[in-house]
Design a protein that fits this description.
Distance between the termini: 34 Å
Strand content: 5-15%
Domain Integrase core: 154-333
Number of strands: 7
Pfam families: rva_4
Low-confidence stretches: 4-8, 29-33
Radius of gyration: 22 Å
Protein name: Integrase core domain-containing protein
Structural class: alpha/beta
CATH superfamily of the largest domain: Ribonuclease H-like superfamily/Ribonuclease H
Oligomer: single chain
CATH class of the largest domain: Alpha Beta
Largest sheet: 5 strands, mixed
Helix content: 40-55%
CATH architecture of the largest domain: 2-Layer Sandwich
């Protein structure tokens, strides 16, 4: 699919073109649904690292495909998908690890690195080989990560969609990049992770909530946020949608305000998020400031958004996918199950949980949905100017941070800002 404004390929873009920044959401709304083949489903769930029994359960529960274990193994064998053979050559594995260590992956532990290799590069490798190579290639990073310590409080939840925890992440805000996230308290599945020009606009946060409810066809039993004014519209919409239910938390009781310290699920996840992803971007953008290439002005902030926002959103999508398919280890103090967030969310019966959400129709959601009113970089005039300069300079859409920095410097010089 291509952008109708600049002609560049959209790739995985959902709302905005990564090249010109134009709103292309209308294309996805009118796009014919894509049929996912049986082979694609098997490939996805196998590479996500699910066990055979979980794959069978997901296929039956979510896709109405019922196989025996023997049939599943035969189908996987035909696709050359094996757990303990056909390992990828170690030189290829080392090259992929080296590439990851050159970017945000420099903050990964070996478990996350192993998951990234499996999902991003389709690499089959033993975990101990990844641990050994990571230690050889990044010994200092291994030592730094091994010294961390977390103290966790006890958390209670009856099942998926019982409580959604929502919060904004502001560590990249000095550079104009605002992140909003939501996590399901029971499964720890990240429901949305979106970067934009603002996470303080109530309409923007409400739209994230509505888009998520549209994607999953459900709203949670309880919504938990901090006391920021950006959550007001979303809270009101949720309470209205829950007003006709008969449970104890129906209506106004279905949303809870609290301090950030009591919103522990999402606050705890932000700590992981910084170590695994945003620390790299903080260092990168801080380096631009140190080189006198960024001064915090409106023009510089808009240029950072124009160049890096699409790339960062792709990183966030990748982070969400890796997190939702990794295995959460059992913790003695926790009352919630251990396993893969996707599996715990889709198959709560396997973890002694119950789906606590309420199905919602698209008609109920459509009455609140609104078109985005702001451009990607937050200033229509500057965005149009940057788009023209991007075309004049014959610049390509950046695929990595090095190209992004080059584009930023080139556009900054062309715009004389």
């Amino acid at each position: 699919m291509f952008c109708p404004f600049c002609g560049n390929e959209l790739g995985n873009a959902i709302a905005f073109c990564g090249s010109c920044g134009s709103n292309v959401q209308i294309l996805s709304e009118h796009e014919s649904p894509i049929e996912v083949s049986e082979e694609d489903l098997l490939l996805k769930y196998f590479r996500d690292g699910h066990t055979y029994s979980v794959i069978l359960d997901i296929l039956a529960s979510k896709h109405n495909l019922k196989y025996s274990l023997r049939t599943l193994k035969k189908k996987l064998n035909r696709l050359s998908l094996h757990r303990r053979k056909s390992y990828t050559p170690l030189d290829i594995v080392q090259a992929a690890i080296t590439k990851e260590l050159d970017g945000p992956g420099q903050h990964y532990g070996y478990r996350t690195m192993c998951q990234t290799l499996r999902q991003k590069y389709s690499i089959t490798v033993k975990r101990q080989d990844v641990m050994r190579m990571t230690a050889d290639l990044d010994p200092l990073g291994v030592v730094q990560r091994s010294r961390r310590m977390f103290v966790r409080r006890v958390y209670h939840s009856l099942g998926p969609n019982h409580t959604w925890h929502i919060d904004g992440y502001d560590k990249l805000k000095p550079y104009g990049l605002a992140i909003s996230g939501c996590i399901d308290g029971y499964s720890r599945k990240v429901m949305w992770l979106v970067c934009g020009a603002s996470n303080n606009n109530p309409e923007v946060i409400a739209n994230h909530y509505l888009q998520c409810a549209t994607e999953f066809g459900v709203i949670p039993n309880l919504l938990r946020t901090d006391c920021g004014t950006e959550n007001g519209v979303m809270a009101a919409i949720h309470c209205i949608l829950r007003s006709n239910h008969q449970d104890d938390l129906a209506g106004a009781a279905s949303h809870v305000y609290g301090s950030s310290t009591t919103n522990q699920r999402i606050e705890s996840w932000w700590s992981y998020f910084r170590k695994q992803r945003t620390q790299f971007w903080m260092d990168l953008l801080n380096d631009l400031r140190g080189r006198q290439l960024f001064n915090g002005s409106h023009e510089h902030i808009c240029l950072v958004r124009f160049v890096f926002l699409g790339m960062l959103q792709k990183e966030l999508d990748e982070t969400k996918e890796i997190w939702n398919t990794h295995t959460i280890r059992a913790v003695k103090q926790s009352r919630c199950p251990s396993g893969k967030p996707d599996a715990m969310y889709i198959l709560p019966h396997r973890f002694n949980g119950t789906d606590c959400g309420f199905p919602i129709s698209q008609d109920d959601l459509d009455q609140f949905l609104a078109e985005p009113t702001r451009s990607m970089c937050g200033d229509d005039q500057l965005q149009a100017n940057f788009k023209d300069l991007h075309t004049q300079g014959n610049l390509t859409t950046p695929l990595n941070w090095e190209t992004g920095v080059e584009n930023y410097i080139t556009l900054k010089n062309m715009a004389e800002i």
